[in-house]
Amino acid sequence: MTRLQHESIGEIKALLAAVRQKGRTRLSESEAKQVLAKAGLEAPREILAQSREAAIAAAAEFGMPVVLKVASADILHKSDSGCVKVGLADGQAVGLAFEQIMDAAAASHPQAVVDGVLVQEMVSGGVETIVGVANRPPFGPVVAFGLGGVFVEVLGDITFRLAPIDQSEALGMTREIKGSAMLDGYRGQPAADREALAGVIALLSELAVACHDQIEELDINPLVVKGGQLVALDALITLRAEQEAVAGQQVRSAPVNDMTAVLEPRSIAVIGASTDPTKTGHVLFKNIIVNGFDGEVYPINPNADEILGRKAYPNILAVPGDIDLVFFLLPGKFVPTLFKDCEQKGVKAACIISAGFAEAGEEGAKQQAILSELIKESGTRCLGPNSIGFINMDQNLVASFILFENWEDGSIALGGQSGIFAGAVADEVMKRTVQRIGIGKSVIFGNKIDLDETDFVQWAMNDDNTKIVAMHLEGMQDPRAFLSVANQAKRDMPIIVLKPGRTSAGAKASASHTGSLALDDTLVDHALRQYGLIRAYDLEEFVEYMKVFQYQPLPQGNRVGIVTFSGANGVMSSDELFERGFEVVAQFAPETNQRLEKFLPEWQPPANPLDLWAAMGAGNRLAHEEGLLAVINDPGVDAVLVILLALANAEFDGIEEVFASAMEQQPEKPIYVVSLGGAVKQRWLREMDGLKVPVFDNTLIAVKSLEAARRYALTRDDMQPDPVIE
């Protein structure tokens, strides 16, 4: 399948415009097939018949059998209305079918404009598929593929991508659906030419982008695939409403904003700083002071002379020095007025902690709209409102109203729409004595009146100390802008996304929490996967994924060796690995077996999973050390999952040395550990902590984490076409 030609695009747009000039937003089947023909897609020969005799003559010209169907842009579901007849083998059947179709159309759709009946040569055999594109705000044009008939209608066996896609991604769509095996040939049918099919999918995605301001929906159902022959038996095209066509696809109104003004200030003012230790304004101000920010910090409070030893000022205009960043901690209704003072002072950026905006209902949304206009007019960069602040350890700047005095610095840039991710979750992580993760930046977007997830990824991508991005998003301001930047950033750093609001209940809760509009979660899921981002579905996955990316190297293959002291957990982990595309190595190498046979009982041959509980008769440390070293050094193993039973009768000294030796001998192979037990487990965790070996409470989360790391290793260099539509 060749790419869509420039002249073809012009001709297609002219066809669409001609339909719109007739006062219609839906093309007839014949018109839709003309569009497909301009794009280079094959359709059966057909003739429009407006009488019984003309239908019989057309059928004779094609040769029997034929198909008859009503020709009307007003009748969408022709089969359901009795307006399709197939397998007509002689002239008498054709004539009768013509009359039945016209009668059925008049009965089911009395207001419809009927042009006649299409007489179409019949295509037999092959696999029926469905290919479609549709405009789905705020995602824009989306391409879909699946098997036709019951597979779509009942089983929902369909997959999606944001358009445009290339040949490789389209080919992946043909393999992703549950019914993919049907394309390999069955019951005497030839195997589908997947490359040709992928070419059609990719071409339609190009068409969707080229005509994104005109086409609302385009369906080919069915597209029959017979080996290398692809024939569009039916097609439907709906145009966008007039105002939508004029507006075109949503794009960012401004280029990606630089978050530097917010996250890297040299001077700060806190409007609403308080002398009361219980107040938010006191905690945030104290955080900035006690964590060592070395720039100027000005408390703004007309009722205080000083706060924590710093001179207080009645308003921001009274501050003698320049101010890069202002924090607002007063009630939201005061923010617009005070923001004008900031503009007069020449403030470069603002972080609005204040709530009571779009998340609070209609009146709050009006206040947010006023504030938004002020921000645009002033050019001030703004984080929030409804934020709890941010943390940038490169500047020793802990600007959150949750008090932190022991923040663990590190390579993760954490962006969240909810304060919990720089609040309770961060507090729990930072209070750990073992298995801590280092977060160098933590930014809470809140309602995202200005700066958003796209700006954050752009900033993180250019930050030398950030190696991992983790984001909680209840909504996306502009999915295509975000995915465009993430598409570039993910080559150098994994991007983990926790996206709640998957259900209608969750979406409703999100709207009242941060004012986020609901997104189609199916499209979110497919889009994140398409662009190589790692999706976490719950808080446990989110935190554990951050840990494994920070702790261990990426797996370079999918072959896993299991070292276990629990037979039951060995079985469970085998199932979980297999279900996620891993190979549980069937046999170890001969040299591995020879090493294991030296301490395994005679009745227990080496196998994977390697159950070592009975081998501890040879010595607890020996069983742990030799078992792990033998498996990790096996040339057929890419990663090792270790399941420890940390019990009193398994205890030994030197657990840290065992794992350190394994990591030293095979530094490129990741080790994931599941540990079950009580006091011994806690001691082992403390001893192993400096090694940065991820330890999990169960096999499922360990395997999910390994899958996330493997998926990133496979997709990090898989660059997609830029999704931004000009």
Quote the CATH topology of the largest domain. Answer: Rossmann fold
Q: What is the mean pLDDT?
A: 91
What's the multimeric state?
single chain
Main sheet strand line-up: 19-18-21-20-22-23-24
Helix content: 25-40%
Q: CA-to-CA gap between the ends? A: 25 Å
The geometry reads as flat
Total of DSSP H or I helical runs spanning 4+ residues: 24
Q: Note poorly predicted spans.
A: 245-255, 505-517
Number of strands: 30
Strand content of the residues, in percent? 15-25%
Please give the radius of gyration in angstroms.
32 Å
CATH superfamily heading of the largest domain? Succinyl-CoA synthetase domains
In words, what does this structure look like?
It is a single chain. The protein has 24 helices and 30 strands. Strands 19-18-21-20-22-23-24 form a 7-stranded mixed beta sheet, with helices on both faces. Strands 5, 6, 7, 8, 9 and 10 form a 6-stranded antiparallel beta sheet that branches. Strands 25, 26, 27, 28, 29 and 30 form a 6-stranded parallel beta sheet that branches. The protein has 4 domains: 6-121, ATP-grasp fold, A domain (Dna Ligase, domain 1); 127-247, D-amino Acid Aminotransferase, Chain A, domain 1 (2-Layer Sandwich), CATH 3.30.470; 260-549, Succinyl-CoA synthetase domains (Rossmann fold), CATH 3.40.50; 556-693, Succinyl-CoA synthetase domains (Rossmann fold, 3-Layer(aba) Sandwich), CATH 3.40.50. It has 726 residues and is an alpha/beta fold. The radius of gyration is 32 Å and the shape is flat.
